[in-house]
Amino acid sequence: MRLLQKTVRRYIVYSVFILAVAIPVFYLVIKQVIREDADEHLQAIKAAVKPRIEKAMSDHTIGRLYFADQDIVLSAYHKTPLFETLTDEDLYDTVSRETVPYRVLSANFIIDGSPYLLQIRNSMLDSEDLIETIVKVQIVLLLLLLSGLLVINRNLSKSIWRPFYSTLDKLRNYKVEQHRSLELTMSSVNEFDDLNRSLEELAGRAHQAYRMQKEFTENAAHEMQTPLSILKSKVELLMQTSSISEEQAELIGEMADASQRMGKLNQSLILLTRIENLQFTETESISLKEVIEKAVVLFQPQWEESQLRVRCDYKEDIFREANRPLLEILVNNLFGNAIRHNIKGGRIGIVLSGNRLVIQNTGRPSELDTGQIFRRFHKESNHVNSIGLGLAVVKQIGNLYGWGVSYAYREGGGFNRNDVDGVRKDGECREGLHTFSVLFS
Amino acid sequence: MRILIIEDEKDLSKSIVTYLKRENYLCDTADQVSTGMEKMEDFDYDCIVLDISLPDGNGFQILKELKANNRTDGVIVISARDSLDDRIEGLNLGADDYLPKPFHLSELNARIAAIIRRKRFQGSNILTVKDLTIDLIGKVVMVNDRSLELTRKEFDLLLYLVSNKNRVISKNAIAENISGERGEYYESFDFIYSHMKNLKKKLAGAGCEDYIKSVYGMGYRFVV
Prior knowledge:
The structure holds two protein chains of two kinds. By secondary structure, chain A is an alpha+beta fold.
């Protein structure tokens, strides 16, 4: 939930609660006030009428007593005398032909030993209308107030939080490996400025740490080159010495293999840092088909040795503006991988179509860990000549040009579901189909 | 034949000298641009092995100097910086070849031999070892005047072996030579064995003596 929604939601809940309570309370209070007012009015009339009744009693002219006001009625009352009461009554008004609420004051008089009832009525119609109008106006006012508050609060929050969202946006797009520093715009709010300053410092430190780590890898790899060259040359010279025993020869051979591996490892590390350092600036328009064809020829000894069948399907050629050696490394690494992790007599399928390069190979019937395979030094196999950097390099090149590299796995060896070609006769030796695709955006 | 090695790492240049001396080359060494320049003034070299990063400057200065003086010394650039720019710049400045470090001495030796052959024998370039005749321009191998059908890879492999005759060539060096610079992708050395087997079979079929010996644990040797 967004911060803004969170505060606004609280406001709404509180306001609705207040409205729901305030309007009925207000209605009842107003009604009570008006009723009390009406009662006082009735008492005042009664007080005014009383002397006339008493005068008529003493004159014995009660039968002829006449009130001009229709709302004052004096009638003979047969029941036992009651106390003075004030009641609400709905009476039918013959003029307006509707039921009208009245406030009625009833009082008893004993005249000449017989009871009389005096009733004074007061129509509450106008008062009801008044209450209704007041409440309506009140509701409208409250609603206006509420919506106004909401709108103002919203706009205010938006403008107040704008620096925060801008910071958030910049932070989201910040990459520690990028060469530009995090530059946040200062606002007029102290808290945000503090936050921005801290973030800038943090980003600066992270970048510094990243750079130092990268420099270390870079320097280590570079500095390793020379002693490695010397080591390799000495091993080679050692091979030329006379009277080497079988035992020694084996040791020397293993040393040669190890130094070779170390050399490759080093080269790949240097390559990775060079890509990160954006040192491959020269680009040209390159035909993917051409690069693939070259790789297929280059690796012919290897894939022929493993008795692999390579099938290339160039639906359409893809041309991309890129650094040629890097693109070649990308294709070579993927193709080399497809050979290395294949099975004897397996297949490799290369499809070029749309903006996608797909390299599929038969291999072990187990899915690779997608989260891990593109990481440096992650090895799925214990192949002697696998140094675990090939796919990391592929990913890095992909990142450089914004190309997506993905992996998919399917059980069985067929390149498509109708491909019976890949189904092996002995059901035991199952195989999986590993697919790497590069999306050239 | 005289070779100049300009390399600041003494141990490496010592290794190169040791390896090349067996080919009966006369080797001079220099560990700086300035000393290299001095040596170049005194002699015309058949080949100069040139490192790019040197303590008092840059190997490219030497290439420029050679070019300015219209010298025809063959130059092979060796660079620790596995950098394409070095390769391109080196070749643009007139270097004959480029070899990234770390390299195999056998590879360096074969490349030096190729440069020297190109410089010495313009036009016809034929290498003869015992009953084997290798025509480097026509890419044809003759055994006792009978031509041999070799694939491109087999031809290169034979030439590599012959260039390093009587030396133990490691499997890694051969693998790298066969698969070019992207030699890191070989799954096993099996493909070397089969290439070697085919080559030996073809040579034997033509009545050639079996010069290619495998050396236990290490690699191969072309014995003459």
